[in-house]
């Protein structure tokens, strides 16, 4: 449990929910991973189950319950809300799928997407967690980080410092079959009013259709879309 608010039972409950959200957990696994007394872990997990925050799977392990999904429906994110129209416009303008990614630790998460309706496409489900070690969105999300963070990601990534230098120079990045064979993408940063990169706006699709130089056709509409999203924010 890395975060402490000083309200012990709340911190323990949140830690249990986060633990079960990553993968189903038995009581013994909760005790081992969180270092909680067995009676405490059981009491809190059972209370969360009663409130439908957790539920049991077919092996009697705790997993995230329906109350989490119900509450999530009320969550509003200005970044996501502002992006939906822009993603659809970008999809229609380019004929390719468009996504919005944000970084969370060592992963990038697709928080919004607009897929082309037919033909070959790169489908990235909303909520998908992808590696920060490959793909144009990863390039963009790491390019303006501090040196220590950048070194950590580059240590075993599919891209190099030269890639990052190119991102900083052009303001966008492209990748061909770096994340997945046959898939190409191009991404641009989305910044807040202080200039901090808060998201990556991406276009992706089959490498065969997008071509070996995605920037030639797609960089301008992508940069225009990123600028529009920044204005909306």
What is the CATH top level name of the largest domain? Alpha Beta
Terminal CA distance reads 33 Å
- What string gives the helices and strands in order? HHHEEHHEEEHHHEEEHH
The tally of helices reads 10
Q: What's the average pLDDT? A: 91
Q: Using the CA coordinates, give the radius of gyration.
A: 20 Å
Count the domains: 2
CATH fourth-tier homologous superfamily of the largest domain: GAF domain
- Identify the CATH architecture of the largest domain: 2-Layer Sandwich
Strand order of the largest sheet: 5-4-3-8-7-6
Broad shape: elongated
Question: In which range does the helix fraction lie?
Answer: 40-55%
Q: Could you please say which CATH topology of the largest domain applies here?
A: Beta-Lactamase
- By secondary-structure content and strand pairing, the structural class works out as alpha+beta
Which sheet architecture does the biggest sheet show?
6 strands, antiparallel
The unreliable regions are none
Share in β-strands:
15-25%
Report the strand count: 8
Please, could you describe this protein's structure?
Helix 1 crosses helix 3. Strand 3 and strand 4 form a beta hairpin. This protein folds into 2 domains: 65 residues, Orthogonal Bundle (Arc Repressor Mutant, subunit A), CATH 1.10.10.10; 155 residues, Beta-Lactamase (2-Layer Sandwich). The protein has 233 residues and is of the alpha+beta class. The strands form 2 sheets. A 6-stranded antiparallel sheet has the order 5-4-3-8-7-6, with helices on both faces. Strands 1-2 form a two-stranded antiparallel ribbon. It is built from 10 helices and 8 strands. The two termini are 33 Å apart. It comes from Epidermidibacterium keratini. One of its GO terms (biological process) is negative regulation of DNA-templated transcription.
């Amino acid at each position: 449990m890395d975060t402490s608010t000083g309200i012990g039972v709340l911190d323990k409950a949140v830690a249990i929910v986060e633990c079960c959200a990553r993968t189903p957990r038995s009581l013994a696994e909760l005790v081992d991973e969180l270092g909680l007394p067995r009676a405490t872990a059981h009491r809190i997990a059972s209370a969360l189950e009663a409130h439908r925050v957790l539920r049991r799977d077919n092996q009697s392990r705790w997993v995230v319950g329906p109350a989490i999904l119900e509450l999530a429906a009320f969550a509003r994110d200005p970044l996501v809300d502002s992006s939906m129209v822009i993603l659809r416009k970008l999809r229609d303008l380019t004929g390719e799928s468009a996504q919005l990614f944000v970084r969370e630790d060592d992963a990038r998460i697709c928080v919004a997407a607009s897929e082309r309706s037919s033909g070959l496409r790169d489908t990235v489900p909303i909520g998908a967690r992808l590696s920060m070690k490959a793909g144009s969105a990863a390039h963009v999300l790491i390019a303006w980080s501090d040196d220590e963070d950048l070194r950590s990601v580059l240590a075993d990534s599919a891209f190099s410092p030269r890639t990052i230098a190119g991102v900083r120079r052009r303001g966008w990045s492209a990748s061909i079959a770096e994340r997945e064979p046959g898939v190409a993408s191009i991404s641009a940063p989305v910044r807040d009013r202080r200039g901090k990169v808060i998201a990556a706006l991406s276009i992706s699709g089959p490498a065969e259709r997008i071509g070996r130089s995605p920037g030639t056709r797609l960089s301008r509409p992508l940069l225009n879309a990123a600028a529009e999203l920044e204005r909306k924010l």
